[in-house]
Every structure is written in structure tokens, then in C-alpha cells.
Specification:
The protein has 238 residues and is an alpha+beta fold. It is 32% helix and 29% strand. The protein has six helices and nine strands, in the order E-E-E-E-H-H-H-E-H-E-E-H-E-E-H. The protein has a five-stranded mixed beta sheet with strand order 1-2-3-5-4. The chain has a four-stranded antiparallel beta sheet with strand order 7-6-8-9, with helices on both faces. The protein is globular and about 55 Å long. Residues 10-140, 157-223 form the Exoribonuclease phosphorolytic domain. It catalyses: tRNA(n+1) + phosphate = tRNA(n) + a ribonucleoside 5'-diphosphate. It is an enzyme of class 2 (transferase). Belongs to the RNase PH family. Phosphate binds at residues 86, 124-126.
Length: 238
Amino acid sequence: MRPSDRTPEQLRPVTLEIGVNRYAEGSCLVSFGHTKVLVTASVEESLPPWLRGKGQGWVTAEYGMLPRATHTRGRREAAAGKQSGRTQEIQRLIGRSLRAVVDMKALGERQVLIDCDVIQADGGTRTAAITGAWVAMASALNYLKDEGVLKTDPILDQVAAVSCGVFMDTPVLDLDYEEDSNAEADSNFVLTGSGDIVEIQATGEKRGFSRAEFDRLFGLAESGCAELFAMQRAALGR
């Protein structure tokens, strides 16, 4: 049995609450167990210089952890004067994941900026951020459609993410911190609603892992993301 008493194929309790920020065009407070991430989506009628005049939009993301998101206080990266390599890697992953399911031509010459702030971390912050970011982005684009700014929906598909790993020689879904820090192997899967792969990050931590174990992890990720897709749709009333 896992430390959380979950079965190998069981997600942590997941919630997706929209409209938590009254000022942002879209927002979502996402919780995977004790991991909580506040995601806001802001729309700007401007583009990076390299995209101007090309008749298309852009989606990008920023990610950060609040000082007491973890067991001990971490220094704000702004105070340190630079972002860590981990932060840069995660926010690029979030941006790539969202752009994979957006028609940039239909978005028009505007950009959606996604801010992911980790309030509390207990493993899987990047996967929770991606899952909640899609909801926040969809909320923002729904707002633009309701206002008549967009004529067609730029969203081509859903995207969600979940972690999987080999813990005590057993492939398991949605690792919390205790499992993640003791896993023999861990991975993050970013999948679309139609079953396409956006990104897979997989690492042997204490040993290598077999093709059979990877296939089991992939299967767990597919079933976990199917649950998350249903939760995303329910959060948006779809």
C-alpha cells in the first residue's frame, strides 16, 4: 500500500476551481492533494516584437513558488535576482503544453500570459500547473468569445499532465512528495484529449526501469489524464 493509502492507479483528490481571481480574464485554483497552484490567464493586445504583423497570437507562461510553499522557507527568486534553471524549465514546459492545443491564427494578434504560482508543494507542481493552466486559458478565451472579440474558439483540444513513477517496485500514478523523493523512477506525461503526446519526461532515479514498467506508467498516465479531462470539462460546465 502507498503511504497515502491509495491504490497504484488512484489520483490524489483533485479540484479545479475557476473564477478565483476577479481581475484576470481567466483563473483556476488547482489542487492535487496537498499541492495547490493558483493559475491566472491574462490577455494582452500586444505581441513580442518577433511576432508582430504575422497575423497570429502567442501563449506563454511564468511559474514560481511562494516562499513557504515547502517545508522550509525558500528565498524569492526576485530577491535573488534571477530565476533558477528548474523554474525556467518548468515554465517553458507549461508554455509548450498550452501552445500545442491552440490555433494561433484563430487567436489573432494578441497573447495569453499564464501565471502559475505554487501556494503549497507536495509533489507534481508542474503537472498540476499544466492541468489548471488549460482551464484558466479556456476561461479567458471563453470570456473573449462572450465579448465578441473572438469569432471562433482557438482551442483545438484539451491538455493535461500527471506524474507517474516506480515506487517500491510498483508503477504508481500521481506521486506525492514522499513517493517522489523515494521513487526508483519517475516521469511526467503531458497528453492531449485526443490521445496525442505533447511531452514525456522520464528518469531512472535509483535504477534503470524496464520497457514493461514504462508501458505500465504510460497506461497509468492515460487513465489518469482521462479523469483529469473530465474534471476540466466539468469545471468549465462543458
